[in-house]
Amino acid sequence: MIARSLSIRMPAILLVLTALSFGPIAGYADDYPDGCISCHVSEKLSGAAASRIDLLLASVGHSKAGERTLVIPDGCQRCHAPDDNGTATSLGKLIHVVHFRGGVENAFLKRYKGDCSSCHRMDTSDWEVVAKSGERNWGVKVGASD
Ligand code: HEC
Ligand code: HEC
Ligand code: HEC
So what's the pLDDT on residue 16? Predict the structure, then answer.
């Protein structure tokens, strides 16, 4: 009886083992492949999903330069330079603060568990951790630049 049920289950067990051993090589599912713009999709300023970045920036009085930026967050670095030598604070600092401040009341910690890999990925060409980036998910209303 035991032997019989094992042999019936064997193909299923083999399938699971195959999936486990080949899964990481085939790549893993990334819920936020383009980082910021994969998560910030809502057209409302509050609600269950994170609001579009152009709307959030406008709500805190950011200049139009934010919504004119094409690639998020790479394009933002023309002012928010990583070495802190740009005209504005480096983006890492600003973005970490807004996503991690306030403890359990913070929506990013509460809803997304503060996962670094929502925004970062390992670049396997040089083993550097980089911020994921992608084309903005809003239309052009004003002049465009990078
Ligand atoms: C996995 C989801 C997720 C990702 C990825 C993400 N964010 Fe957020 N972010 C949030 C949530 C949740 C909030 C809280 C506000 C809200 O609910 O819209 C937030 C807040 C913000 C705010 C508003 C802060 C304030 O002062 O109110 C800005 C600006 C922002 N994010 C920019 C970015 C940028 C730029 C990136 C990429 C580098 C990014 N976010 C990636 C979920 C995310
Ligand atoms: C033309 C320059 C410029 C560009 C482009 C730009 N910013 Fe800014 N940003 C500023 C300046 C100036 C400030 C205010 C001073 C500071 O915080 O360094 C600021 C402030 C911010 C703040 C803090 C806002 C607050 O009040 O808490 C966030 C967050 C931010 N920028 C995100 C972004 C993102 C995301 C992008 C790209 C979509 C972007 N910025 C593009 C110049 C720029
Ligand atoms: C909401 C998006 C977001 C999350 C979550 C996030 N980062 Fe970042 N991080 C950024 C951005 C944007 C930069 C600036 C990218 C650049 O300068 O190339 C950055 C830059 C960095 C840097 C470079 C130095 C600096 O501060 O600019 C380090 C190190 C880093 N992050 C580590 C982490 C770690 C560890 C976590 C998890 C605890 C984390 N990050 C979570 C968006 C994020």
Answer: 42
Quote the tokens at residue 1: 């009886």
Given this model, what pLDDT does residue 27 score? 61
131: which strand partners? 120
Which one of 72, 90, 94, 132 would you pick to mutate in the ligand 2 pocket, going by the greatest count of ligand atoms within 8 A of its CB? 94
Per-residue pLDDT reduced to its tens digit, 110-124:
999 999 999 999 999
Residue 20 Cα to ligand 3 middle (Å): 30
What does the pLDDT read at residue 84? 86
Q: What are 34's two structure tokens?
A: 């383009």
Q: Compute, in angstroms, the gap from residue 69 CA to the centroid of ligand 2.
A: 11
Q: Output 58-66 pairs: Cβ under 8 A, ≥24 positions apart.
A: 64/142
Distance between CA 87 and CA 80 in Å, rounded? Answer: 7
Q: Check whether the bond before 73 is cis (ω within 30° of 0).
A: yes
pTM over 0.85: yes
Q: What is the DSSP letter of 8?
A: H
Low-confidence ranges of the chain (pLDDT < 70): 1-27, 140-146
Check if 66 has its Cβ closer than 6 Å to any atom of ligand 1.
Answer: no
